[in-house]
Structures are given as structure tokens and as C-alpha cells.
Amino acid sequence: MKQVKEYLSYAAGAFGHDAFYATLSTYFMMFVTSQLFNTSDAGFNDRMIGWVTGLIVALRIVEIIFDPVIGGVVDNTRTRWGKFKPWLVVAGLISSILLVVIFTDFGGLNISHPVLYIVLFGFVFITLDAFYSFKDVAFWSMLPALSLDSKKREKFGTIARFGSTLGQQGVQIVVIPLVTMFSLAFVGSHAETKTGWFWFAIVIAVVAYLGVMLTVWGTKEEDNIIRKNTEKSGIKAIFTAVAKNDQLMWQALSYFLFALAYVSTNSMLLYYFKYVMGAGDKFYLVGIFTAIEGIIAVAIFPTLSKFFSRRTIFTTGAIIMLVGYALFLFSSNSLPLVLLAITLFFSPYPILFLVVLMTITDSVEYGQLKLGVRNESVTLSLRPLIDKLAGAFANGIVGIAAVAAGMTGSAKPEDITTAGMQSFNLFMFYIPIALIIISVLIYWFKVKLTEKKHAEIVRQLEERLRKEEAEKN
User: Binning pLDDT at 50, 70 and 90, where does residue 468 land?
Assistant: First the structure.
């Protein structure tokens, strides 16, 4: 019963966490391009969209330097509540509040004083991103602290992915209905409005923080000899822990290319429905389909992992995604074919995410054996860092694609030119296809940390640490 409570509590946190992430990385750009800058001056709109997207990308690139440091801060935290929970409580609250703030026009400054708006937005966004990073790192770096056993980790990772899939895809289901419902309730408009997006952000912020508090309430760090092999790390040691862990670095590069491809395409799905198919009101179907597919995918992962290696699962899943891309290109805007293409594109993603998460988690012990010091949060910080970096680049790609294709403001499907569609297809399909192929090649030839090798590493660590402890006594 206690174990079930921990699983469900961790899943609840993942649900809110990924609902937050989807809102920030995917739907914030829709708010920016369709509502925030929707004046009669198309040139002004495009310039401001460019400034906002460019600022987001620049700030998150700069933040690459700080995320491992954030992991080090979490690793160095010593409190009666553990090292993760204080960060979840404080950073979760601040990031939720600031998520709501960025879904406003700052009192009309976006139009009346655009330069001041950009300055204030930059300050708020980097503060939001910093606290989100603390929450993100603390949440996912709990995983190796919950169990040393790969199979138990897979259970925690699987149930967490189950929750995060429901959170992320649930946003796809409710985003348009909620925005239009709040627009009608507060403005009297049947169309999307800034007010509707603002209240949508409030809902997501509340859900995200409730999930955090459930994780804090229901989980407990495992106490064992291997986890005691820790010490406070300085800045140099933090970056050494990352740079010298070769398996972590190769997995990180492979995952970055994969995540960038996935998030870029996923972020443009709403644009595809609104401006290519002229079926924005049918977008909720994407959320329903992907939520069901995600549940099924996560449910079968433990079975797949029993019979197939992670390398085989990752490669097969990527091939299925590529088939989905190919079907997309020949769907001729047929809703049934598009939904089938989305099924093939999305259904492997939760499974591939778990493969990556398990490999990165196992690299904690790999780095511990190689370097002599355990760095849980520093190591696990790379996975959320990559997601944020991929999300930032995807925001930039979406902004460029929307402007290049003419999918901004009050544009309609009939306004999109052939050249605009070609530009849109380049960013939504062709570039992501190339990125996924490169990602698979890196994973296949460079990532060697298998489940069998990890079990042997844990055995060696236990033997070495028990010997050292016996010598001290």
C-alpha cells in the first residue's frame, strides 16, 4: 500500500509538471502569435513576435551554463525534509505564479511601450525559467533516490510517464475549449481572446502546484550505503561530473536532437489544424487520441523492456515515428489520415522518453563508479535541461515558421500561399525527420550503458563501498 501511494504521488506530480511544460513550451507561442500581437500593423506584429521568440531562445541558451549548477545546488541541499522537497514547494509556487504573469500583456505595454514590454518580459521569463528549473531538476532527480533497482526505477518512471502523458495530452484536449469558454464568460466573445488565455494559464498553474504538493506529501527518499557516498560539490566538480560521464553526454546529445524534432512538430500541430486544415475546432481530437495512445504506450513499456533491449525499443520506435511523418506528407488534409499520422508519430514517444530517462538515471551509478562521487541531481539535471533547450529552440522555430508561412494574427487558411506552405512543411516535417535519423545513429553507436551493464556497476559499487566502510571501522 505504501509503494502504491508513492507511485501515485509521483505520477500526480508528473501530471501537473507536464501540463505546465506543455503550456509553456507549446501554447504560449500560440498566445503570442495569435493574441498578444494582433494589431492592424502586420510589420509591427512580426517584429515583436521575432523579439519575443528570439529572447526566449537566447535566455535558455544562456541558461545551459546554470542548469548543472542548479543540479549541484539541489545535490548540496541538506534539510530535515530531504534535498528535493523544499525546492519543489518553493520553486513550484513561484513558477506557477509567473506562468500566469506571462500570459498577460503587462497592462497594455505590449502595444503602448513595446520596448519596456520586452525588457519586463525578459526579466519575468528568466525568473520563471530559473525557478521552473529548480522544480524540474528536483522532481526528476528524485527518481534515482527512490530506488537503486532498475526494475523498481522502471516502475516509478513508467507511472510518472503515465501521469505526464495525461498531463501533456490533457492540455491538448482542453486548451481550445477552456480558452473559448473563458473568453465567452468574461468577454462575451465566442472567439479566442487574451482574457481566455489568461484564465487558461491560471487553471494550469493551479493544477501544476497541486501535483507538486501531492509528490511532496507521498514520496520518500531511499536510505542506503550507495546514496550515502555523496559530498558537497563545488562548481568545478559539478561540471566535471557531467563532462567526464561519457555515457551521459552521448545520451544527452541523442535525446536533444530527438526532443527538438518532436517538440517542433508537436508545437506546430495546432497551427496545422487552424491554418492548413481549417479545422481548429477539431484539435481536441488530437488530445483525446494521444492521451489514449500514451496510456497504452506507457502500459506496455514494462512488457517491452522484458523482451527487448532499450536500443531495440528506441530504434523501432523512431522508425514508427518516421512512418508517421511520411503519412502526414501524403494525408491531403484528410482528418482520418492526419489522426492516423499523429497516432504513428506520437504513440512511440512516451516509450522512447522512458528509455532515455532510464538510461540517464542509470548513468548516476556509472558516473559514481567512474568518478568516485555520486551526483544525482547534477546528472539528472541534463534531461530537463535538454527538454527546456529543445523547447526554446522549438519556440524559435515555431515563431519563424509562423511568420514565414503567414500564420499570424487573424490569418485564415485561404490566406496561406504555396510558398508559405513550403516553408511550414520544412520546419514541421523535413528538418525534424533529419534530426530523428541522426539521433538514432548516435544512440545506436555511442550509448553502451545497457541494463545488464548497470546491474554489474551497482554490484561493483556495493562491494567497493562495503570494503571501504569495513576498512574505516
Answer: confident
Per the structure block, which three cell numbers stand in for 432? 525534424
Query: What is the Cα–Cα distance from 350 to 316, expressed in whole angstroms?
Result: 13
| Distance, C-alpha 320 to centroid of its chain | 21
CA dihedral (219, 224, 226, 231) positive or negative: positive
Mean pLDDT of 97-121: 95
In this prediction, what percent of the chain has a pLDDT beyond 70?
93
DSSP 226-276: TTT------HHHHHHHHHT-HHHHHHHHHHHHHHHHHHHHHHTHHHIIIII
Neighbouring C-beta atoms of residue 174, cutoff 10 Å: 16
pTM of the model: 0.72
Determine which helix (DSSP H) or strand (DSSP E) holds 466, and give its type and residue range.
helix 451-472
Q: Answer for the pair 10, 163: CB distance below 8 angstroms, yes or no.
A: yes
Specify whether the CB–CB gap between 33 and 396 falls below 8 A. Answer: no
- The grid coordinates listed for 348 are 512511440
Distance, CA of 335 to CA of 384 (rounded, Å)? 33
Average pLDDT, the chain: 86
Asked whether the beta carbons of 197 and 191 are under 8 A apart, the reply is no
Name the band, by pLDDT with cuts 50, 70 and 90, for residue 232: low
User: Quick one: which H or E segment has residue 193?
Assistant: none
Query: What are the tens digits of pLDDT across the range 392-441?
Result: 888 888 888 988 898 887 788 888 888 989 999 999 999 999 999 999 99
Residue whose C-alpha cell reads 558516473 in the numeric block: 367
DSSP characters for 138-165?
HHHTTHHHH-S-HHHHHHHHHHHHHHHH
Question: Alpha-carbon distance 208 to 96, whole Å?
Answer: 7
Amino acid identity, residue 342? I
